[in-house]
Amino acid sequence: AQSVTQPDIHITVSEGASLELRCNYSYGATPYLFWYVQSPGQGLQLLLKYFSGDTLVQGIKGFEAEFKRSQSSFNLRKPSVHWSDAAEYFCAVSNFGNEKLTFGTGTRLTIIP
Amino acid sequence: DTEVTQTPKHLVMGMTNKKSLKCEQHMGHRAMYWYKQKAKKPPELMFVYSYEKLSINESVPSRFSPECPNSSLLNLHLHALQPEDSALYLCASRPRQGITANYGYTFGSGTRLTVV
Predict the structure, then answer these.
(1) Which among A32, A90, A99 has the least Cβ separation from residue B56?
(2) What is the pLDDT of residues B105-114, one digit of tens each?
(3) E strands within A15-96?
(4) A interface test, pick of B32, B35, B107, B112 with most A CB neighbours within 10 Å
């Protein structure tokens, strides 16, 4: 069965600083990987996705993620965070055929001035 | 139209009530999903519809009854719910075939359900 681990429950970053959110997955074949962001009381917005090809993926809002098969990781990065980036971030993996999306437990990002 | 629309946004219901949640998309997506999200937890899959047929039921109690009357609409009928069913219910959709099937899921903003 597929699974996702986000080891950091809560991260605090100063505005303008760089950010890296960690994600490790477990899946027998090549996974489909996603990062979603959720503001309080809101739905989920897709930041970026990886299916195949270039392992460095660019997303919206200045985010990028790198797929590392050897480490079973798909970490999310942003060079300079803005106060509006404060939210909950979920890494997710999908099985072959993209039928079932399984989420990690999420990382809450707090931005301090 | 690139959105998934969920109504109502908020719902308070008693344990003996019957209510329905509605989800609508006009993107031509042929896979639609219901997820349940408790506070401070990740979304958990409940049901998957593919080409208007139920393809996955994640052992959800029968007090939740999904329905997909057409390719644009997904309903979740609620009956005799318990207070622990209070949660954010999210609908999502995805293209089912072709290269666009590799696109990510599009989520609605959810219905905040409170069972009293």
Answers:
(1) A99
(2) 899 999 999 9
(3) 19-21, 24-26, 32-38, 44-50, 56-58, 64-68, 73-78, 87-94
(4) B107
